[in-house]
Amino acid sequence: MKVPRFYTNQNGIALMVVLWVLVLLMALATEFAFSMKGEVNTTRNFKEDAETYHLAKAGIHLGMAEILLPSSFHALHPDRGLVIGPPTMKAQEEATEEAKNTYRSIEREGIPLGRGTITYSLEDENSKIPINKATRNTLVKVLTIAGVENGEKRDIIADSILDWIDANKNHRLNGAENYFYQNLTPPYFSKNAPIENLDELLKVRGINEKIFYGNDEQLGLNQFFTVYNLKSINANTASPEVLSVIFSESQVKLIMSTREEKGFYDNSTSDYFRIRSTGRIEGSPTNHTINTVIQKIFGKDGPKLLTHYWNDNSF
Description:
Elements: H1 5-8, H2 11-68, E1 74-77, E2 81-84, H3 89-93, E3 111-113, E4 116-124, E5 129-130, H4 136-145, H5 151-165, H6 178-181, H7 209-213, E6 225-226, H8 240-246, H9 249-262, E7 272-281, E8 287-299, E9 302-311
Parallel strand pairs: 5-6
Antiparallel strand pairs: 1-2, 3-4, 4-7, 7-8, 8-9
């Protein structure tokens, strides 16, 4: 018996197989291209991140070099940030309106290095109040300036901060210890030890983000306090709000008017500094920021630097 032609003609099936194979190959090629592009981008980002990290680290060392400079005072300039006075007292005694010219004018922004740039800043930790040494009266003053107007709430927060820091497990009249924190969700324990990071205050009874961070109208607690064991608070760099916690209203006015006139109030120097440094590469969105706190220690062999805090991935 003769077989019909449509049973013996395989040309159409072969064409379909070839087309499907081509589609599969195109899909594989496209996926491979995207995969390679992703690998290239990942490699480039890793390389640029490594570059910007070392640029940021170079900025940290520039900041350290500034801190090591001999100085007669450390002061706060409205445009330049933390400034370092001349190494001799003579220039300070002759200070007038031209005192601003006696500052070491060091460029800290957009410093070129290789194919990238460095930007760093110096902040004075001595411009704040050491929270682990703060008395209840000091805490109440800070809370009042920070906008906590309710007397009962101020008492709760002040006593709870002191309970968080002290070593015992007995709560003050308005404070809080383990019993209070264990009833929260999730539960946790009171630290009963000195505060090591200011973010711990967000765990203390009565403190929320508004009180801690502040807003456009009120300073937050993070702008009043430091965790470091300062030898003194620098009147040249402290904010008017911090000064008002320590000094009388008339003294604060005198300090601020003298700072405005001369550029500094007295020959106070600082020993704790925060350095923030960012490295960038031209034409790349990649950048890296390092945040560190350095203590300047004076010894018989000259000043030395001690690192108290180091964050490789600061934002």
